[in-house]
Amino acid sequence: MAQRRAKPRRRAATRRTGRPAARAKATATADASARERILAAALRVFADRGFDGARTREIAERAGANLGLLAYYFDGKEALWRAAVDRAFGELAQELADSTAPQPGDDERRVIERLLRRFVAFVARRPEFMRLMNDEGKRDGPRLRWLADRHVGPMSNALRERIERAQASGLLPGVAPVSLFYIALGAAGLVFSQAPECAYVTGVDPTDPAFAEAHADTLVRLLLRD
Asked: Is residue 28 within 8 Å of residue 39, measured between CB atoms?
């Protein structure tokens, strides 16, 4: 009588369980990392070259990314510029939100001081942000209006309310809020947007954390009243 062949044993169904999910997670993490590198590089290149002078190939090189990834993530240079600006303003908005979050023993003076210090720290870390804003802010056009409508206008309106309250309580000088806003903006950020000039002329690197902290101290002493 013919001997029956043994049926092949089935491999355990659980052997590969979780691997597709793990691979998908790793891919998503890598994609997010590449996208963040591209946006960070894009902000620097747009700040250095201006929108018209910026080249996507240089952005890809600085990001250490394939040029095709830029086309994959962003539909053209304009979309990349907007995404880079959105990312920078998102980071700034978080800094300002953290600085105004209530803390034990808070009063209005402490909140404004934190605002000033966090803003200085931000532009010291991101001098390209100030350079890009200075460049785009000097000419009217679609990009300026997009910036103003989406980011600058809402942020300045929220800060203007706090400035007016601080002026009413005597914490800030009683000058036009618009003037005070741009005086503070220039005093806080100009040295960082002009960092190469400052370093060449004075030998001081303004992006050094110690200088940035001292600069914030100076700004607080100049603007805030006891």
From this structure: no
At 26, the amino acid letter reads A
Domain parsing of the chain, residue ranges: 85-223
**Per-residue DSSP letters for the chain?**
-PPPPPPPPPPPTTTTTTHHHHHHHHHHHHHHHHHHHHHHHHHHHHHHHHHHH--HHHHHHHHT--HHHHHHH-SSHHHHHHHHHHHHHHHHHHHHHHHHS--TT--HHHHHHHHHHHHHHHHHH-HHHHHHHHHHTTS-SHHHHHHIIIIIHHHHHHHHHHHHHHHHTTSS-SS-HHHHHHHHHHHHHHHHHTHHHHHHHHS--TTSHHHHHHHHHHHHHHH---
Q: Domain 85-223 has what CATH class?
A: mainly alpha
Question: How do residues 88-133 score in pLDDT, each as one tens digit?
Answer: 999 999 999 999 898 898 899 999 999 999 999 999 999 999 999 9
In this prediction the pTM is 0.82
Q: How far apart are CA 21 and CA 210, in angstroms?
A: 45
